[in-house]
Amino acid sequence: MIRKFTYAALSGTLLFSVNATAVDDRTQQYIDTLVELGYSAPEENELVHIPPSMEDLEEAELHPELKRVIRRGYDLFTNTQQLRGENVFNNMNCSSCHLGEGRMPFSAPIWPAAVTLPNFRGKNAHVNNLEERISGCFTYSMNGMPPEYGSDNMLALTAYHQWLATGVPVYPKQPIYGRGFPPPERPEELSYTRGEAAFQENCSVCHADDGAGLRVGDQTVFPATWGDMSNNWGAGIVRVFTAAGFIKNNMPLGQPNSLSDQEAWDIAYYMSSQERPQDPRYTGDVKETLEQTGPTFHKHSRYGQIRETDGHVLGDHSNLGDKTFLKPDTVRPRTFE
Ligand code: HEC
Ligand code: HEC
């Protein structure tokens, strides 16, 4: 499979990272592989880091108990469904969006969070640490309840993130190559009907016509792109530009950068015009929630907007998907007073 080849070619075999301007052979090879896959090469001042792989972990000179905890973090990240009903209430694994086990550039690799936090985060308007950032993805992307701060599972997850960042300076001054889901340029017009047709043609073979994906037993084969088993309205990927970036860089699986920019944006627009569980910041009224979260977040999503095909107001419901609470009690403001 192309995908297997891709990730094998991109996984690290040595435990070091390169962040000086001089580029060694291994880094050059890494960049060449990415460019062959259609990604842009790094700008001259960008930090390129090749995160270590699980094979590197076995070779690394770390305490065996630390290795065990990092392995546990990896296992939670790639099979988050083991926390189903406790912390996760949809069909996602962390690795459903963070491809290549959280190491893949242009697929929101997770290690940057370990070297750029604590920092101020506009989404919740206070200083967040790594645990709180991970909690954000549990709350919104997993439609769930974060593991308790300081718990074994939370520590294992942070250890996995931090270990992937091995060798990168804390608070790096350079911009990070391949961070996030960088979107292609927004075309002038987005079309629901074109997006729908392109989704049926390129995506529904795995994600199904109704976006529900495929689940076998207690394992997710293909995650749900919308509906009750998908991320909720508060997740970063509901922003149309983030979805467009994710799609262009990562989908169809194994064929990154194969869609045109227009197709990626049209599909993102179509996908973002479907229903999903309520935003945990819901006040009981979609208009009011939009007023509060619009300026920092929902101005980029379709939340509270009218779907042109049937007049439906997106997000105007109190469906929480599989969970019984709206907002996890760990999500609270901080003031440092
Ligand atoms: C539905 C998709 C989705 C799922 C599932 C998901 N995330 Fe994310 N994650 C995102 C998006 C979108 C971002 C923001 C990327 C950006 O800034 O462009 C993000 C960002 C992050 C970051 C910050 C990366 C950085 O550059 O600082 C971390 C860390 C992270 N996620 C961890 C997790 C963990 C741990 C899980 C599982 C508990 C998870 N994510 C599940 C979509 C997802
Ligand atoms: C060959 C099967 C396949 C095809 C085709 C495919 N995907 Fe995916 N997609 C996956 C898998 C598998 C994942 C989860 C990644 C993982 O587990 O490695 C995923 C993840 C996703 C996600 C993030 C998680 C979620 O469900 O929201 C989105 C969004 C997505 N795909 C959209 C698309 C779009 C849009 C297309 C068409 C352009 C597409 N996919 C085509 C298999 C596929």
UniProtKB/TrEMBL annotation:
UniProt keyword terms in alphabetical order: Heme, Iron, Metal-binding, Signal
Biased composition (Basic and acidic residues): 324-337
Positions of region (Disordered): 311-337
Signal peptide positions (record): 1-22
Positions of the Cytochrome c domain: 80-197, 190-275
Xref: SUPFAM superfamilies: Cytochrome c
Highest taxon of source: Bacteria
GO molecular function annotations of the record: electron transfer activity; heme binding; metal ion binding
Name by which UniProt lists this protein: Cytochrome C
Source organism of this protein record: Marinobacter halophilus
Classification lineage: Bacteria, Pseudomonadati, Pseudomonadota, Gammaproteobacteria, Pseudomonadales
